[in-house]
C-alpha cells in the first residue's frame, strides 16, 4: 500500500505542464518526499518514501534518493511513478549527485569511506572508490564531468577522484568538517563549506589549491552556486541564516535570516529563487536572489535534508 500511494502521488505530477519547475524535498525523520510547485511556492504532494530519505538528485526521467536506514539508493520513475530499483550500496549513504551528462550517479557512503558510482542507464553499481577522508558526505561532479570532489565530515580535506581512472588522485587541505561543495559554471573554482572552521574555502581547480578563505556564519554547511557564476550561497546551521558571497571580491555581500538549522539548498534554473531546507523548523525558505529577502516559508515534513529543483 505504501508503494502504491507513492506511485499514485508521483504519477499525479504529470498533470503539471512539462515546463513547470518542481522542488523536491526529502524529509529524513518523517520519511516523506515533499513536492513544491515553484510557481506558486506551495506543496502539491507529500508522499511516503523509504525509511530515512537523505540525499536527492533529479534527472530528466528519474528521482534518486538515498535511504540512510536501509543503506540503499532508491530510483523512482518520474513519468510512471514506479520505484524501478532499490540498490543496496552500504551503511549510511548521504549525498547523491548526477553527472553533467546524466549517465552516472555518485553516492557518498559514510561508513564505507567510499564513493559508489551507479549507472543511470542500467541502474547498476559500476565502481566503488575508496577515499582518504572519513565519513564522506557529498561527492560532487565538476561541470566537465572529469572530477569528483568529496567532502568528509571527519576530515580537514577535500578528496579528488579522477573519473577516468576511477581512483583518488589528490587531497586538498581545507578547514575542519567540510560539508557542502559547489562549482562555478565554468569549473574554474569550487567552493567548500567547512562547518567547524566557520569558513568557505575557494579552490582553484587547475592547481587544486585554496585561493581564498571566506569567513561566514556559524556551522556553514550547504552550498549553492548561482547560474551566472557571480554569487555563491552558503547556509549557516547555528545562525539560522544564508549568506551570499560575491565571487569577484570573495567577500560576503548579503545575509538573510531563515529557519532553524538550514542545511542543503537548490536554485531554480534561472537563479531567481533559492530554496533552503530548514532541518529543525520543518520548513523550506524561499529566497528572492535579487532582493535577497525571504519570500515565503513553506511547511514540509520533519527534518528536511535538502532540495533538488527540476
Mind explaining what this structure looks like?
With 310 residues, this protein is mainly β. It contains one helix and 28 strands. The strands form seven sheets. Strands 3-2-1-28 form a four-stranded antiparallel beta sheet. A four-stranded antiparallel beta sheet has the order 4-5-6-7, with no helix packed on it. A hairpin with a 5-residue loop joins strand 20 and strand 21. The longest helix has 10 residues. It is globular and about 45 Å long.
Architecture blueprint of SSEs:
Layout: H1 2-11, E1 22-27, E2 32-37, E3 42-48, E4 53-58, E5 62-67, E6 72-77, E7 83-88, E8 93-98, E9 104-109, E10 114-119, E11 124-130, E12 134-141, E13 147-154, E14 157-162, E15 167-173, E16 178-183, E17 189-194, E18 199-204, E19 209-215, E20 220-225, E21 231-236, E22 241-246, E23 251-257, E24 262-267, E25 273-278, E26 283-288, E27 293-299, E28 308-309
Antiparallel strand pairs: 1-2, 1-28, 2-3, 4-5, 5-6, 6-7, 8-9, 9-10, 10-11, 12-13, 13-14, 14-15, 16-17, 17-18, 18-19, 20-21, 21-22, 22-23, 24-25, 25-26, 26-27
Could you write a compact summary of the structure shown?
The protein is built from 1 helix and 28 strands. The chain has 310 residues and is mainly beta. The radius of gyration is 18 Å and the shape is globular.
Amino acid at each position: 500500500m505504501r508503494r502504491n500511494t507513492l506511485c499514485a502521488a508521483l504519477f499525479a505530477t504529470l498533470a503539471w505542464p512539462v515546463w513547470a519547475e518542481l522542488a523536491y524535498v526529502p524529509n529524513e525523520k518523517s520519511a516523506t518526499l515533499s513536492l513544491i510547485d515553484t510557481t506558486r511556492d506551495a506543496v502539491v504532494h507529500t508522499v511516503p518514501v523509504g525509511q530515512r530519505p537523505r540525499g536527492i538528485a533529479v534527472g530528466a526521467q528519474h528521482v534518486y534518493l538515498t535511504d540512510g536506514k536501509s543503506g540503499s539508493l532508491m530510483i523512482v520513475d518520474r513519468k510512471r511513478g514506479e520505484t524501478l530499483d532499490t540498490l543496496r550500496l552500504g551503511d549510511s549513504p548521504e549525498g547523491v549527485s548526477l553527472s553533467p551528462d546524466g549517465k552516472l550517479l555518485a553516492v557518498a557512503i559514510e561508513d564505507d569511506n567510499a564513493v559508489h558510482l551507479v549507472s543511470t542507464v542500467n541502474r547498476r553499481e559500476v565502481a566503488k572508490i575508496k577515499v582518504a577522508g572519513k565519513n564522506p558526505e557529498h561527492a560532487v561532479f565538476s561541470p566537465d564531468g572529469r572530477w569528483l570532489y568529496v567532502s568528509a565530515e571527519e576530515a580537514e580535506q577535500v578528496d579528488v577522484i579522477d573519473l577516468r581512472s576511477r581512483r583518488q588522485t589528490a587531497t586538498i587541505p581545507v578547514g575542519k568538517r567540510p560539508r557542502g561543495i559547489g562549482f562555478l559554471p565554468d569549473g574554474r573554482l569550487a567552493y567548500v563549506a567547512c562547518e567547524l572552521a566557520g569558513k568557505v574555502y575557494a579552490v582553484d581547480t587547475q592547481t587544486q589549491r585554496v585561493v581564498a578563505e571566506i569567513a561566514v556564519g556559524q556551522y556553514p554547511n550547504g552550498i549553492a552556486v548561482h547560474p551566472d557564476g557571480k554569487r555563491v550561497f552558503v547556509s549557516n546551521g547555528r545562525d539560522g541564516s544564508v549568506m551570499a558571497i560575491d565571487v569577484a571580491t570573495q567577500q560576503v555581500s548579503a545575509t538573510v535570516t531563515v529557519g532553524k538549522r538550514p542545511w542543503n539548498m537548490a536554485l531554480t534554473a534561472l537563479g531567481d529563487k533559492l530554496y533552503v531546507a530548514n532541518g529543525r523548523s520543518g520548513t523550506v525558505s524561499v529566497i528572492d536572489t535579487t532582493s535577497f529577502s525571504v519570500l515565503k516559508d513553506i511547511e514540509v515534513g520533519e527534518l528536511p535534508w535538502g532540495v533538488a529543483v527540476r
